[in-house]
Specification:
Elements: E1 3-8, H1 14-30, E2 36-41, H2 52-59, H3 75-80, E3 83-86, H4 89-98, E4 106-108, H5 109-118, H6 128-140, H7 160-182, H8 185-192
Parallel strand pairs: 1-2, 1-3, 3-4
Length: 193
C-alpha cells in the first residue's frame, strides 16, 4: 500500500495537523484504498502529544489529532515512504542529505503541490508513485515554483490564533495536494462510477 510521510521539526505542530488533513481528505476520496499517512520530526519530541493549540486548530477544521504521539524521523521512515512532505525547505534539504536515494521523493508540501499543478492537463492520473515521479522529473527540468514561499511557518510558542492561521493554510494546501495526487473530488467520483 502507498504511504505518505509528513515531516516538521518537533512533530507536535505542523506535521500532525498536515498528517490529519491529508489522511482525512484521502480517506474521503478513496476510502479503504487511501494511502497510509504518518508523520515524524527531524528533532521529534518522542512520545509527546500534539500541542493543545494544534489539536484545537485541527479540530476546528474537522480533523482529530488528539491521539497523536510524536516520533523522531529515522532513515527507515523515509525509505518506506512513497513521498515525503516537508513543512520547510530546511527539513527537505536535511532529509535529502541524510537519505540521498530518496531525493526524488522528498518535497516541501507547497513545492509538490505546485509541481503537480504544473503537470500537463492531459497527463493521466496514474498511481501516487507515478505522480510523484512525474513531479520529480519536472523539478529536475528546472521548474522553480515559488522559491520564496516554500515553508509553512512554525507556530510553536504562538497563541491559538497562530495555530488557527497555520491550520487554515495547511487545509488549503493539503486539499490541493490530494487533488494533484488522486484528481479532484468530482473526477474521483466519476472514476468510481
Amino acid at each position: 500500500m502507498a504511504s505518505i510521510l509528513v515531516v516538521c521539526t518537533g512533530n507536535v505542530c505542523r506535521s500532525p495537523i498536515a498528517e490529519g488533513m491529508v489522511r482525512s481528505a484521502l480517506e474521503a476520496r478513496l476510502g479503504e484504498a487511501a494511502p497510509v499517512v504518518a508523520s515524524a520530526g527531524t528533532a521529534g519530541w518522542e512520545g509527546s502529544t500534539a500541542m493543545p493549540e494544534a489539536v484545537v486548530a485541527a479540530s476546528e477544521r474537522g480533523v482529530d489529532i488528539s491521539a497523536h504521539a510524536a516520533r523522531r524521523l529515522l532513515a527507515e521512515h523515509v525509505r518506506a515512504a512513497d513521498v515525503v512532505l516537508a513543512m520547510a525547505t530546511e527539513h527537505r534539504d536535511e532529509i535529502a542529505r541524510s537519505v540521498p536515494d530518496a531525493r526524488d521523493r522528498v518535497f516541501t508540501l507547497k513545492e509538490l503541490v505546485r509541481l503537480l499543478e504544473a503537470l500537463p492537463p492531459d497527463d493521466p492520473a496514474g498511481s501516487l508513485s507515478e505522480r510523484v515521479h512525474a513531479a520529480a522529473t519536472l523539478r529536475r527540468s528546472g521548474f522553480n515554483g515559488n522559491p520564496y514561499d516554500e515553508d509553512v511557518f512554525d507556530p510553536l510558542g504562538l497563541p491559538l490564533d497562530g495555530y488557527r492561521a497555520i491550520a487554515w493554510e495547511l487545509h488549503g494546501w493539503c486539499g490541493r495536494l490530494v487533488d494533484g495526487l488522486v484528481g479532484s473530488a468530482s473526477a474521483a467520483r466519476t472514476m468510481e462510477a
